[in-house]
Amino acid sequence: MEIVPLDSGLEDVFWNYVYQDVPNHHFFILDWKFEKNSTKILLALKENRIQGMMLTYRQSIVQLRGNAEAANALLDNLDLEKVEIQALMEHENMVLGRYKPLTRHELVLMTLRRGEERLHIRHPVVELNPTDEKEIACLMRQADPEWWGETASQQIIEGMDERLWLGIKVGGKLVSLGGTRFTEWGSNIGVVGTEASHRCKGYATSIVSTLVKEILARCPIAFIHVLSDNPPAIHVYQKVGFKPYRTYFFARGEKR
User: Does one domain contain both 121 and 236?
Assistant: First the structure.
């Protein structure tokens, strides 16, 4: 097994490989296209064929894919003190053998292809703009402190041009939101959140439905990731038409 960095000489091989399973390689495609300066990708090759790959983004976020032999060889080349890693479930023991988990989850990737959508838009959904950045950041922190507890309004402003942010307001206050970044191969709904006192009113369903409508007008497939132990969110996404595609092991950890 040969471990080599992705460079211009291997890009054709890389693109041919990742486009065979776009949902599974979404972040590899996204980061290599738009964040190349912050992204490192290692390929595991055998007889010049890709057996697996590992992405490292900003020296902290890691995506791992491939067969067992490839994953083991790729992890041997990971030398970070702290990581946030998403890998196939069968790689869990390999990861935990190298990193002590501080948090650990099962993350379900759900997909929805054009023609499968069941839209339920029963509440007025508005497009958010830079003047909403403080409310967006505040609601994200409240909705899920573990994932978005450090979200700052400046982060929202910096990415506003690249994303569609939608929300529902009650009495002028933002109480539910969702966001996506459009890409031609498929768009991931990266944020969905509702203030605790306004849950179970169908707001998230209206937000997700509107995002799906906008995504499928531009590309053939929508993605969303959800924790396996979050049945209310899974119910919302299934109601709109999302189906489970693959389950991943996710952990934040420190090197043993």
Answer: yes
Residue 111 lies in a domain: no
- CA 59 from chain centre, in angstroms, equals 17
In Å, what is the CA distance from 98 to each residue of 57, 81, 82, 83, 179?
Answer: 19, 10, 11, 11, 34
171/223 same-domain check: yes
Q: How far is CA 80 from CA 55, 116, 126, in A?
A: 13, 41, 41
C-alpha distances out from residue 1 to 42, 56, 63, 144, 160, Å: 12, 20, 19, 41, 42
Q: Which CATH number is 20's domain given?
A: 3.40.630.30
Whole-number Å distance between alpha carbons of 188 and 194: 18
Q: Is the pLDDT of residue 155 over 90?
A: no
Spatial CB neighbours of 5, under 8 Å, sequence gap ≥ 6? 40, 41, 42, 43
Within a domain: 203? yes
Q: Are strands 243-255 and 99-113 parallel, antiparallel or unpaired?
A: antiparallel
Structural domain boundaries enclosing 199: 117-240
Q: Do 129 and 209 lie in a common domain?
A: yes
7 and 44 together in one domain: yes
Please state whether the predicted TM-score (pTM) of the whole model is above 0.70: yes
Query: 182 and 204, same structural domain?
Result: yes
Distances in Å between the Cα of 134 and the Cα atoms of 38, 148, 151, 152 are: 26, 14, 10, 8
When pLDDT is cut at 50, 70 and 90, the band that residue 160 belongs to is confident
User: Is the model's pLDDT at 48 over the cut of 90?
Assistant: no
